[in-house]
Amino acid sequence: MVHLNRSRNFWVIAILFLALVMVAQSCYYDNEEELYPFDAAQCDTVATVTYTNTIMAITNSNCAVSGCHTGVSPTGGLFLDTYQQVREIALNGDMSSRVLVSEDMPPSGPLSRCDMEAIQNWINNGAPE
Questions:
Q1: d(Cα 15, Cα 27) in Å, to the nearest integer?
Q2: Quick one: 65 and 98 in the same domain?
């Protein structure tokens, strides 16, 4: 009987040990930025970025959407429907501060690195139309 209990205890301990090893292996954390560092060469920002060919699509899908910076009463009283409105916040630093530095706009989460790179290039080039 004692031999049977030792054998059972051995198997219980072995199974618990294997379970512990499996759990420890599953606690692996991947950081996307470390695994896939940003490479600006992957973005299509080599050509001159303009409001019409690049920035308008970004603002129309992320900023000038219902409930945000468009419509009758936009968030913060800030309209981003036209080139002039977007250019103004680009040149006064608000866009860079909120979208590129703080990354708190849009509220749904930061833009893609390529969109951020395009906005930065656009601002650096004087926000051409």
A1: 19
A2: yes
Contact 80, 89 (CB under 8 A): yes
Confirm whether 129 is domain-assigned.
Answer: no
Distance from CA of residue 115 to its chain's centroid? Answer: 10
- Same domain flag for 68 and 90: yes
Least confident of 18-22, 47-51, 75-79, 84-88: 18-22
Quote the DSSP letter at residue 76.
G
Domain, as residue range, for 72: 40-124
- Sequence-distant (6+) residues with CB within 8 A of 91 are 123, 126, 127
Mean pLDDT, rounded, for 39-68: 82
Q: What is the pTM of this model?
A: 0.67
Q: Are 96 and 88 in contact (CB under 8 A)?
A: no
- Residues 76, 19, single domain; the answer is no
